[in-house]
Amino acid sequence: MMRKLILNTSMILFAASLCAAETIEFTARSQQQDPSTEGVWRSVETKTSWDPAKTCVIICDMWNKHWCDGATERVGEMVPRMNALLNALRRDGVLVIHAPSGTMDYYKQMPQRQRAIDAPYSKPPVEIAGWCYLDLNDESALPIDDSDGGCDRDGDNVQYTAWTMEHPGLELAPEDAVSDDGQEIYNLMAQQGIDNVIMMGVHLNMCVLGRPFGIRQLKRLGKNVVLVRDLTDTMYNPKMPPYVDHETGTKLVVMHVEKYWAPSTTSRDLMDEISGSK
Q: Residues 228, 265: contact at Cβ < 8 Å?
């Protein structure tokens, strides 16, 4: 019986090794200033290759419900595509970290939550802030005005804590981790030798940039970060400057991130390059 178990385990590990990719390759788009024309930025695309074993995905605040109905609906629209990409990345050995802020009580009995708690402490090279605010020494003002809360639906302007868990349509696999704590997530990355982060989720102009596990903090920790630009959203009301539709507002913030913080890619680009995902 023991010999049979060892053989079966070896076969599983061998099969997993056949499925896993040696690298994740994608096109990273950034914005660079034109040296010949002041104030002009141009898109630059770079072929990038990452080791899956040194890469994680962070899913930021994909809650089951938001105080703004429009935000809730757009999260739901992203879930099927996000699941497909996460499953492909898991098969290649990428660590998936679910970070639905403020809902950790829901996960307190789950092994995925305990995995993050149990990761040994690792001292970060810089302080992990409770929130990373916009600093004009590092970046320009955001290209959209979200001072009204950013809801695009009339009558949905009363802000309250509507969320209790991550969107139930997102799969929580046994090998995943759950945390909304910047130090815990840094500990997980140190434990597994992770240098690269694929970031997805909401909302780009708020939590994705500002959380203690968000893009600003990750870059200050020295991590390589790429944003999946079709799996994110913003809190933006088209009745506020610059008075564009919601989708255009989101694209403007994506370009802001590409200028000052991290390149972006698409779920299609990632999935086309992952072994067996086409």
A: yes
